[in-house]
Amino acid sequence: MEQERVWREQIRETLFVPEDLPKLDVQVHGQFSPESGVVAERVSYGTQFGMRIPAIVYRPEAASQKQCPALIVVNGHGGDKYSWYSFYTGVLYARAGMVVLTYDPTGEGERNRDRKSGTRAHDKVEGPDELARRLSGLMMTDVMQAVSYLSQRSEVDSTRIAAAGYSMGSFVLGICGAIETRLHACVLVGGGNLDGEDEYWDNSKPMCQGIPYQSLGFLGDRGAALYAMHASRGPTLVFNGVQDTVVNMPDTGEPFFADLRVRTVALKGDEVDIFETGFVPDVSHRPFFVTRPVALWLERHMGFPFCSEADIRAMGETHIGTWAAAGGVEMDPGYATEEREAGTLALGEGVPGFERSDLNVYSDAEWEGLKDRLTHESWRRQAKAVQIST
């Protein structure tokens, strides 16, 4: 509808998402096989200010021309392509016939000045508010660049591209999925409870969430407006642990979403593709897109070439804490507890762990030579220079 078109334009303008997306300039840096039947490719492509995004793309070895759906993983705070859930998602869904893209968000992994993960470097608070809005726009641009990249791959069906966001990633995708109409489906986990004025999201991390969310006040009922735009794009699933205190889920659980759904339907005018919800009792913050219920939802909406609903229901599961300990897989200490990520029962068995070097896109020498086109600090300098000049 016309109102949604206007809102999309206003969001892009407010958050400095470029009208013409940056040139991709795709570069391929090699590949390896994490297990039989799965290929992992090391690639990079462009984003704002000529910066580069390093990414790992997991695909089935037997991919057919234009037959594969695709999935983009949008990480939470401190997460990147090295995170256990990123590569677990890559292997799990590549087995099913999807092409899965995982990348380093700004300030993490190979976009960190020390090439480290879990730093939360982008959280450094620095004014004016415009810089925070530009940061949010960068994160959205990165998602949109992933869509552009996947769309031009020969084995990907460009009408079947989905994205899954966890925690901060659910917030980024909650906005980006409302304006990126090329996405067919979105999954928001560890969040998606887009609330009102001076509530959780307005008062969350200011640079990547609080200030950008406040700036969208022109939408009125922000949650309902964003989800109405999602529904015009395609299906959306919001899936959470009932006891997720990280994102205030105990206060914004099923009754909150039921009311939000009513408001969204009233705003859109019909119930077509209005978001669906799922809740798991007695657990907290987890990347639920690696679990059976979300895989079933994705199969229904995306269609897996090599895996049916019956196959998903018959699969075994992996307790992530046990798997990580046995394989020496690193987990974020803040989430490596049973009620959080360590307690996740992930779909599938035998997913391999990785050495960090396996998931490096660049050699040490290449990375040193490209730091000015990778790190968050370099982007921030350029964003501030543009801000001053305008």
Return the average pLDDT rounded to an integer. Answer: 97
Helix content: 25-40%
Q: How many angstroms does the end-to-end distance come to?
A: 32 Å
Domains, number = 1
Query: Which of globular, elongated, flat, extended, rod-shaped describes the shape?
Result: globular
What's a concise summary of this model?
The chain has 390 residues and is of the alpha/beta class. 36% of the residues lie in helices and 18% in strands. The chain has a nine-stranded mixed β-sheet, with helices on both faces. The protein has a two-stranded antiparallel sheet with strand order 10-11.
Topology:
Layout lengths: L1 H13 L12 E9 L2 E9 L5 E9 L7 E7 L9 H12 L3 E5 L25 H23 L4 E11 L1 H12 L5 E5 L16 H9 L7 H12 L2 E6 L12 H15 L7 E5 L11 H11 L6 H6 L2 E3 H8 L17 E3 L16 H7 L5 H14 L1
Parallel strand pairs: 4-5, 4-6, 6-7, 7-8, 8-9
Antiparallel strand pairs: 1-2, 2-3, 3-5, 10-11
Helix pairs in contact: 3-4, 3-5, 3-12, 4-6, 6-7
